[in-house]
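Sanity check

After download, print the first record. It should look like this:
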Amino acid sequence: MSDVLLKGKKILITGLTGQVGNPVAMAFTKDNDVWGLARFGNIDVKKKLEGNGITCVTFDLADPDFKDVPNDFDYVLNFAVSFDPNFDNTITTIVEGLGMLMSHCRNAKAFFHCSTTGVYQFKGHEPLKETDPLGDNHRVMMPAYSICKIAAEGMARFAAKQWNIPTIIARLNVPYGNNGGWPYIHLEMILQDQPIVVHTDKPSLYNPIHEDDIIGTIPKLLGAASVPATIVNWAGKEQVSVEDWSNYIGELVGKKVEFTYTDQTLESVVADTTKMEDLVGKTKTDWRECMKRLVKKWHPEIELNG
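Expected structure tokens:
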């Protein structure tokens, strides 16, 4: 098993207007023929992507029409996501749509499906392995999210076997970076003196993964794609709590952070990264340095402490 050389390849990316898909598409378009599928509700976003050399096709996974989508891609990266609370709508989009996408792209050398560590049953502060029980993790905030993500994994597993598509299912844990993410939301709340909501079973631990590490690990993860599909946690090497990163952001911008504790929010989701590190190695970034970069990107007018 070795990492894939993403140079001179034809790559299809879904969800490239999103927080994760966008920096990935921008990174890989430098050396590859990148195509992107999205609804493109914002025409300016589409023009910007096209200006960077990406071939954009207006497309809706809820009602897929492949007439303008070739089927000769080397690699397909699926970052499509839905936060719609309606189960039927979400299943149509991210489960049925995924199946039709994999059928259309069945000749790909590998298919990358971005899932989430939000598919796991809560386990307190204990790290979650890929073999641990699944559960309705995000129900308290997003009613359809976790169950439909589990269903999408099932579709990806079926399609990998049905059409012999080497597939990797990567369960992502708290992505963040210059394109946003949960810590960015907390930054804006801190600047507005709003309390950060955290679970009563404190601290609220996660493995945030910076977009640099997301981009850097994709070639090796594609190299680990297989039939049956490979399933792996996709997470940072460091366990960091919402409390710690919020307090650090508060220190940087000179704000005292207040927390509101409730059981009506997400609990800790700590990822066991043993399998990931066997496949691709440890992530490389430092969370404090990356949080500082995030703050500088979004608020260059603030003179940071430290």
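If your output differs, re-run the checksum step. Summary of this record's structure: The longest helix spans residues 87-104.
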